[in-house]
Amino acid sequence: MKEITTFTTPDGRSIDGSKLPESLHFDKKSIFVKPEDSSFGKKTNIVVIIVFTLIVVVAFLPILLVIISSFSSEESLTKYGYSFFPHELSIEPYRYLFRSGGTLSRAFLNSVLITASGTLLGLAIMCPCAYALSRKEFAHTKGLMIYLLIPMLFSGGLVSTYMVNTQILHLKNTYLALILPGMCSTWYLMIMRNYFRTSVPDSLIEAGKLEGVTPFQSFWWIVMPICRPVVMTVAVFQMFSYWNSWYPALIYIDSNHRDLYPLQYVLVNIDRTVQSLTREAAYTSGMMNITLPTTAMRMALVVVTILPIMILFPFFQRFLKTGLTIGAVKE
Amino acid sequence: MDKNDQPVKKRKYGSLSSSAKKERRQLDLMTLPTVIWYGLFCYLPLFGMVFAFKEFTPVPGKSLFTNLFVNSPWVGLKNFSYLFRNPLSRSVILNTLTYNIIFLAAGIAIPVALAIFLSEVHQKKFQGLVQMTLVLPYFISWVIVGYCVYGFLSTDTGLFNSVLKYFGADPVQWYQSPQYWRTIIILLNIWKTSGYTLIIYLCSITTIDRTLYESAALDGASFMQRVRYITIPHLRPTVATLFILGIGSLLSSDFGLFYQVPMDSGALQDVTQTLDVYVYKSLMINANFSYSSAAAFLQSAVGCVLLIISNLIIRRVDKNSALV
């Protein structure tokens, strides 16, 4: 095994390590062996690696600035500004965030609630539909496909969507306005349908049918367990998109329904939020003229908002990559 | 659509056994929630597009339907002609188009170049690391990006102004200076999206048969020759797919990038206002239903037509590259 993967056969009759899975292809010893399909020599390789390292570092700087600033003391920020090398480190901004309680913890809970329920509800209605679409005996495949594809090409636009959601469905100032509109997507339905069709052997379902298994049972007990990867991929993407969403809140939630704000929208509205936080802090501490470390606190709030994404990101990598490339890559 | 979509035997419900009938009914039932969702959230707004051809004059207390269909007169294309005659909306349309064309070009050239170089790096682990760091911005909302930018550009506390001060230069009021923002917006868009497309192109490169490269190496092909004769021809279908999708949203823009990142600064309006921002503002601030829905209709219609046309052209040139 090792010889095939680590090494290049000079006579051109390679046994083709490249056809093996990548995990076999590169073990520790092979790191400095030039793969035969790369045209880079050792020197070029190192130069390219250095250039890419620079690109990666530069691309990460904006996020790093926010993280570092959130750990700086207010005085050093007001005096010297946001910087990669703060004059004084401090966790004061976070202490204030956690102590301020009310508004922010409510916003955090809202975001969690919206993300969880939106993702679950969306999957609950999309998965069975994708399953039906993947079955040959489903009678309306063509009609339903057209029905699902038209909205992909043509959408009503903001005005009519807004009017329908507020005046017919009465979603203004409700949690439902933040959950329902993003629940389904034709793209995800197609991805799941294709996956269901290619990775579930038809014979399995036919055999179940002979035993008297109903379509819903075979969907739940046969298809769902087999197709967990694709369902997880869609779930991860939906989770990120709900966690990041703030546009629905901007449109559908009035400023006198602050208790419905998700975390992202609190950030949009930060100046007003900071005022109300100051008031809250003044109230709880009994002092009237309290000043909050607002310059640093903004950044701390940003970090709290991206923290779940940063933590989950490495775990979800696998799903993210399949999700991003599915459909777009043509061979 | 492929052949598998068709049911093997098209039979009417009547001729089926009762268990098969039940089975089909259950399958129908499983699609029902999705069908209802699409009805409520996609098709109802689709009918709302008549807004664009009406002078919306709502009578308070009446339902949306009566207000729209009974109380509001048809005005034909008046809303659209206003849109094209009004200098503000004309500059907004022009802005949207210019930005999107630049995004489209940069969104192909940069990630393709990055993918080609990255794919030749010997260490696969390094490739993975680069991909994952570069794609991170894609999963961060524009609100957060707005704050990252604020850290650099804030007039009093921003990093750029500290650096300028350090070198004795005058600080710049970034959020009041429109001349810098075209560049900033283009850079931000590249930063946020190229990681995602890089992964797509890289994945597409890995599907290329490696023996092609090996025989090219045996023939003594240079790096540029390999790229030109093997990699780029293989990437063409993927580029075409992303290109067609990009053309389809030529009049749409990322609301967050153009509204939230410049912090809705009035001084920057000339360079940051795109159709989506314009529609939002005329709806929410001026409550101008007819013009904003005309703009929205234009977005949708132009996108749809361009998508179909570009797909047709690409199918003529290279059948394999087209979407359908």
Q: Helix segment count of chain A?
A: 17
Arithmetic mean pLDDT of chain B = 86
Query: Which value, in Å, is the CA radius of gyration of chain A?
Result: 26 Å
Cα-to-Cα separation, first versus last residue of chain B: 8 Å
- Shape estimate of chain A: globular
Radius of gyration of chain B equals: 26 Å
In percent, how helical is the residue content of chain A? 55-70%
* H/E element sequence of chain A: HHHHHHHHHHHHHHHHH
| Count, helices of chain B | 14
Topology, number of strands of chain B = 0
Question: What can you see in these coordinates?
Answer:
The complex is a heterodimer of chains A (331) and B (324). By secondary structure, chain A is mainly alpha-helical. In chain A, 69% of the residues lie in helices and 0% in strands. The longest helix of chain A has 33 residues, at 102-134. Chain A is globular and about 75 Å long. The relative contact order of chain A is 0.11. In chain B, helix 5 runs antiparallel to helix 8 and helix 13 packs antiparallel against helix 14. Chain B has 324 residues and is an all-alpha fold. Chain B folds into two domains: 3-71, no CATH class; 79-321, MetI-like (MetI-like fold).
Give short descriptive properties of this protein.
heterodimer, A: 331 residues, mainly alpha, MetI-like fold, 0% strand, B: 324 residues, 2 domains, 14 helices, globular
Gist of the model:
The complex is a heterodimer of chains A (331) and B (324). Helices cover 69% and strands 0% of the residues of chain A.
Could you give the topology of this structure?
The complex is a heterodimer of chains A (331) and B (324).
Chain A: H1 2-6, H2 22-25, H3 42-70, H4 74-80, H5 92-100, H6 102-134, H7 141-153, H8 157-168, H9 175-179, H10 186-199, H11 202-210, H12 215-226, H13 228-244, H14 247-252, H15 263-268, H16 270-285, H17 294-325
Chain B: H1 18-47, H2 64-71, H3 78-85, H4 87-120, H5 124-135, H6 142-153, H7 159-166, H8 181-206, H9 210-218, H10 223-248, H11 255-260, H12 269-272, H13 275-284, H14 289-317
Helix pairs in contact in B: 3-14, 4-8, 4-10, 5-8, 8-10, 10-14, 13-14
